[in-house]
Amino acid sequence: MKKWFSVLLLTMLVFSLAACGSQKDEKTSEGNKETKTNEVFKIGAIPDQNAADLDKGMTAVAKYLSEKTGLKVEFVPSVDYAALVTGFQRGEIHMAWFGGLTSVQARNLVPDAESIVQRPRDAEFHSVFITQAQENINKLEDLKGKSFTFGSESSTSGHLMPRYFLTEAGIDPNKDFDGKPNFSGSHDTTYKLVESGAFKAGALNEAVWEAAVKEGKVDTNKVKVFYTTPAYFDYNWTINSNVEKVFGTGTKKKVKDALLSITGDQKEIADLFQTDSFVETNNDNYQKIEKVAKELEIIK
Amino acid sequence: MKAGNVFRLHNRLILSLILIAVFVWSLFSIKWNADLVHSGGIPTLLQIVEGLFHPDLSADVLYLGFKSAWITLAYAVAGMFLAIIYALIVGTLASGVLTSNKATRILSKVIFRGILGFTRSIHELIWAWLFVAAVGLSPYAAIFALAIPYGGILGRIFADMLNDVSEEPIKALKTAGANKWQTLIYGYIPIIWADMISYTMYRFECAIRSSAIMSFIGLGGLGYQIQLSLQDLKYDRVWAFVFFLIVLVVFVDSWSNLVRKRITERKKRGVMNTGWNSVIFAFFLILASWIYIKLGENAQFIELLSHKNIEAAKRFFSGLIGLQSDQPAFLDADSWSDALKLTLETLEMSMMAIGFATIAAFLTVVPAVRSIANGTLTGSSKWYNWILYGMVRIGYIFSRSVPELVWAMMIIFIFKPGLLPGAIALALHNFGILGKLWAEVIEDMDARPIRNLAMAGASQIEIFFYGILPTVLPRFLTYILYRWEVIMRTTIVVGFVGAGGLGMDFKLAMSFFNYTQITLLLLCYMILVIIADFASESTRKAVK
């Protein structure tokens, strides 16, 4: 019996040593190979929509940017908003398609990061509040005592701004609904949950809603929009502060120009973003978002 | 002796009454009316059930299923491998068998048992979250997150086993002149290694489930696919991936049963058996898993210690201890009172969960006993016993193969966010485990008194209450307490998806990068787990 065990122990030991050894070898060879030009330019996007659609559209963006800038661009999918912000903070994501709130969070963590490009509609973005068609809900105040779902807790158009406008209308989302509000995680899930009847009402991104209606993903006989919020700044491409250092000076401008040159001809991109052009933006545009987030104690 | 028996019976009775009272108290935390299910709950439930009967088994789902099942398995194997190493080292130190005098023995016991206690008190998903926040997304984050709490549990059990070894053989070795290492290798380990392997195999099954839910922090595997399908509300796909998980768990379960059976047979007969197949298979699995993680996922271990990661980890932990904040939440009275309210809620959730699980297991355990189904226990067998047995057992497997978090993600669509969906999700998972453990207890009991009762004309129900229950009650209570401890640890995880308690706030604090709040919630959580540990351990001793 003891022989049996010592054999087991020995092989385990040898194996674990071998495992450690091979790790080191591989790493050193890898380290030597790496040069600055070989670095992959990684882009990310907040997972606020159907994962398959996002993957398709963002891969198209990566391909387009590769062609235009000569960099090796890759899309890195992410399961939650906070994970993407953390990746950005760590400098692993070089550019990301953030919502207003996540871009403010990201710029708080990486002070020299810059919001560079957005869609024309992002300058005056709206959230829509939806409910079941037969429900007698016609204004925000009617939501009192009804079950309600936000999108992701980190979403601007699915949580932050709807919460802000609800509070303005005198509704405390933590107390006044039927039970606590739900966080569905994504805009697509929000309308599906309202359509399936799981929740009486919800709030989501106007662009995602319009796309869903256009593509017949949502049954408008069952779900209706009863309130559209005033305009605010939302989504944007935010570029990391380490880009010039890693990929050489001028990269920021190169990437920005490439993004601005996107037109409706890039069909997969146009489909995902619901736009046929991009325009410039800057950090100052998101001051209101930051103020609201601080008021609601989402940013401390 | 007799007085002692009466006293013990008393103890059990009192404990049962206390447990029932606590469960009833926890029920008061919920306003019981029809409003618990939101208006769309029932239609959603029907959609989910429909998906269960028509899982999406198209080619690409199957392909994805196999791929993710392998990732899940590989992470679990690699994590368990590290956990065993950690447990062997720290467990031996914690048992104090290597120390020479009393003072150092106590010191080493206290320190290393403390380390083991700390590492296992935090749920693997929380470890994973902390690792990812500190060192970024890497398969190693998942593997370490698995290895740390599992190593903690294994190490503690190993230490207990080492301490329970009877004195005589060790004394014999010592008088023969063996030093401490020799007594460990030739004395202690050969005595306990069969139990060690069998417990490790049991833990391995749990590791599969834990590995599956690692994907909720963004690491691939079956949980990731389940989560994606749930986000798109494609219940038929959800079930398809859940079935993959069940098959994986059943596979590991039957392997571990096989190994355990071999070991006990060997012990009985005292002869060498062919355990080599399993050993070779285990080696192959470990090797393949590491190779996959190294090459397939291209994970660099050394990169974890890179300058960048150390900077990020430093930033993260200094955030946790409040260096970056003027007003750390854990120094704020209001935050504390809010957090303590959540802590109480979490406690109530765990009580409710174990209560529901106990009731469900209690109602189903009798038909699930093999020796009742085939009639060896009661001396009579009905044709429908086997059908009932099969149905209940399949129900158990189903219930325990699906992790609490996955149950919670579905249930949250049916009930309103709050404590109840969390409690139900926890109960759904634990009732299968409890039922299985209880059924095994009944199977192992002495059949003679029961047959006597049956011969004297007692009905099935009378047999259960007068024959079976009095004999197995202490073991039943032990298992209830033990599962409650586990549930306590898991409450925070079901909260992530909106099922109330500390978990919900933890998730929000993570999303809003509110580090000091995370620290505060973690503190509350640890207090809760330590209380649960202590309460369950001391009561278990009392009923033994």
What does this structure look like?
- The complex is a heterodimer of chains A (about 300) and B (about 550).
- Helix content of chain A is about 45%, strand content about 15%.
- With about 300 residues, chain A is of the alpha/beta class.
- Chain A folds into two domains: about 150 residues, Periplasmic binding protein-like II (D-Maltodextrin-Binding Protein, domain 2, 3-Layer(aba) Sandwich), CATH 3.40.190.10; about 100 residues, D-Maltodextrin-Binding Protein, domain 2 (3-Layer(aba) Sandwich).
- In chain A, the strands form two sheets. Chain A has a six-stranded mixed sheet with strand order 2-1-3-10-4-11. In chain A, strands 7-6-8-5-9 form a five-stranded mixed sheet.
- The relative contact order of chain A is 0.17.
- Chain B is mainly alpha-helical and about 550 residues long.
- Helices cover about 80% and strands about 0% of the residues of chain B.
- Chain B folds into two domains: about 260 residues, MetI-like (MetI-like fold); about 220 residues, MetI-like fold (Orthogonal Bundle).
- Classes of the chains: A alpha/beta (about 300), B mainly alpha (about 550).
- The interface between A and B is large, with 59 and 57 residues.
